[in-house]
Design goal:
Length: 314
């Protein structure tokens, strides 16, 4: 760690403690911008494009990365110049959270040494898809444990609302602050115009965090409801599906077990030949003779053909 980094590190980091003359001299890159007597932050347009493009590629879950650059000073004081951004590949991405893994740190360190060998990791960025611009408790934990130097910042981008914001250390807490843009490349994607560079007004209130938690609870509730419905459908249908794959005898046994009475295949035949219809050969619906007397056709069928008589002409 260099001497300026050691001098700036403390238990309650604050940008007001960064002394300008500890850092290299450079002209402020945004002309006659209104300045304060404390560390100011400038982001190059090219770095914003990397962040916005990364965020737009994953609008359904949070993504992350690191910011690289350097601290400088001019006649009015120190300023942070963010020159680039490195994607946090191999991170554990979720709808309402993101985690830097060991593979993520290794990848970002290698990319930093390859692409920006003379620059420092001056902060980190992550997205809040449709959650707005704020730092959750987990975000504050990450910032305080991995980016705790007074000149390190946190950048938040909402790819759905197309808003972003910057947070810097103030009395040991990350607080929303304005930033400036160095136009090193043209703004042509419609995502990173000055109108989208917002100073968050809700960073000090718990409302955004509450809304994020409610949104997360709704997602979990929908997921649980869908899983229960799927389990119910499977519980109802699996005996029928299994029976279709087995022999008819097994199907009858399963039907008896789950329904209570096995289906009777002879029932339709009995219904077709009811007792009223009588012996075989009778047409269904043919009436019987009254008082139990047999009809002429019954007698004829029972007696068989009548032998010829000698009196009848041959």
């Amino acid at each position: 760690m260099s001497e300026p980094e050691k001098a700036g590190s403390k238990e309650t980091p604050d940008v007001a403690e960064v002394s300008g003359y500890q850092w290299p001299h450079r002209e402020f890159p945004v002309g006659t911008a209104e300045r304060q007597d404390r560390l100011q932050t400038v982001i190059r347009r090219s770095a914003l494009k990397v962040i916005h493009k990364h965020g737009q590629s994953r609008r359904d879950e949070e993504i992350c990365g690191v910011l690289v650059g350097q601290v400088y000073h001019d006649e009015q004081g120190p300023f942070l110049l963010i020159k680039g951004a490195i994607r946090g590949e191999f991170a554990a991405n979720e709808a309402t959270g993101v985690t830097f893994t060991a593979e993520t740190w290794d990848y970002m360190q290698q990319e930093s040494e390859r692409e920006y060998p003379k620059e420092k990791m001056v902060g980190w960025y992550h997205t809040h898809p449709d959650f707005g611009i704020f730092l959750s408790k987990m975000d504050v934990f990450i910032h305080g444990n991995f980016f705790d130097l007074p000149w390190q910042v946190a950048f938040v981008y909402d790819p759905v609302r197309k808003e972003d914001g910057l947070f810097a250390w103030t009395d040991g807490e990350p607080v929303a602050v304005p930033y400036w843009i160095e136009e090193d490349v043209p703004s042509t994607d419609g995502l990173d115009g000055p109108e989208n560079s917002l100073e968050p007004s809700t960073a000090d209130t718990p409302l955004p965090g509450i809304l994020a938690e409610l949104s997360n609870m709704k997602r979990r509730q929908k997921l649980h409801t869908g899983m229960l419905a799927l389990l119910l459908i499977v519980a109802i249908l699996w005996p029928v599906i299994l029976a279709m794959l087995l022999k008819p005898r097994t199907f009858n046994e399963l039907w008896t077990k789950f329904i209570g009475k096995a289906p009777d295949a002879s029932a339709p035949e009995r219904a077709r030949r009811s007792p009223e219809d009588g012996a075989p050969g009778r047409n269904p619906g043919q009436p019987r003779e009254p008082n139990g007397q047999e009809s002429a056709s019954d007698v004829s069928r029972r007696s068989g053909p009548k032998p010829p008589s000698d009196a009848e002409p041959r």
